[in-house]
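[Solved] Which block belongs to which protein?

Original post:
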Amino acid sequence: MTEAKPTPDKSALSRERILRAAMALADADGLENLSMRKLAQALGVEAMSLYNHVKNKEDMLDGMVEQIVTGFHAPKDQDDWLAELRLRATCAHATLTRHPWAAHLLLGRVNAGPRMLGYVDATLGCLHKAGFAYQDADRIWNALDSHIYGFALQDQKFPFKPEEFASVAAQYLPQIPQSDLPHLHALTSEVAAGQHYGAQDFSFGLNLLLDAIARLPRHQP
């Protein structure tokens, strides 16, 4: 006798449950393949029932952004502001790595939900407490976010996996003649020989930025 499948609990449908399911689908299939029809199928409900909790797909995407921000660290306005900025960057990087579609979504729309606005406000507050004018605080957090989001996009789009770097470098080495391109040839040779990992390093770039920010002039907080 075939065991009956459990009937989905439609009464448990909520905005948060819809957003979690949408994020899971985007993680699995990419944001471009996310549709309200597929989301309804995953939840075991009719597509029209979703609209009792989200206005439309755009509203759902805004809600997904707000869910992503819960994985970010809103820096506190305390004395060790550099440590707070570092934690802010590393948490955002880890979240964007877990959800490869998120960087595109964050950069491609106006994000004005309460969590995102609170995150930005906390960042400005941390930097202002550290002694930076609001204009400089704005430049600083935008520079940091350019590194965070840019690194995430580059990491996702790079055509080779880190474990492939050595073999790929060896493959391309004959196309980089030492006589014409001596420095690139030397570097590629090191990657091919396993002497240099060659992968992008998020922490290295972050350290450069934080070191430069720490040397910027500040007023007394």
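(Second protein starts here: sequence line, then its structure tokens.)
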Amino acid sequence: MAAGAMSLVLLAGHSPGQTATNTPAASAPEATTNQWAFYASATAYLVPHSRDYVNPMLTADRDWLHLEARYNYEALDTGSTWLGYNLRAGSKLALNFTPMLGGVFGHRTGVAPGYNLLLSYGRFTLSSQGEYFFDTGDRPESFFYTWSEFSYSPWEWLRGGIVIQRTRAYQTDFDIQRGLLVGFSYKKVDFTTYVLNPGWADPVVQLTVGVQF
């Protein structure tokens, strides 16, 4: 994704995240040698009985190099910057994997090793964004964050699926949240809606928009 909220939907067309991204997670476009590829997204979090907020994210890729910036991901009023190495394998069953290291600053401070992952086969896609945040200011606040999706695309412009998330940017009755997603794409723009915890608690709604350029 955190993963945080760069999901308005972070992985709408392919994670906040991510691309995600979030990938969140693994949604960033593939960069070829000597060419930069950029992906920007913003996710609005509508949280019952708590503060609503927006999680913006920006990624830049060139060949093996991956750069990323997030805000309101690990925690509210907190930013992070990331450096990663892009690895790719396969064609029919395609894997994109980016190990990363991030620095976190703002309301929370620390370091975070993490990853972006995208596995695709035909019209099926599995994406995941995760990190372990080591809070150097308050060790008990260290935690593992993840945003993961499994989706199916009956057409190139439409996808639907399931999502799970673990975050401390906001609190719910569930340590691991789960829910549904539906996403639409038009040219280089993605729109995704996530509904977390439906039927178990007051749902958290996430609205994500992302654009490649």
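Accepted answer:
You had them paired correctly. Confirming on the second one: Residues 37-212 form a domain with the Porin fold (CATH 2.40.160.40).
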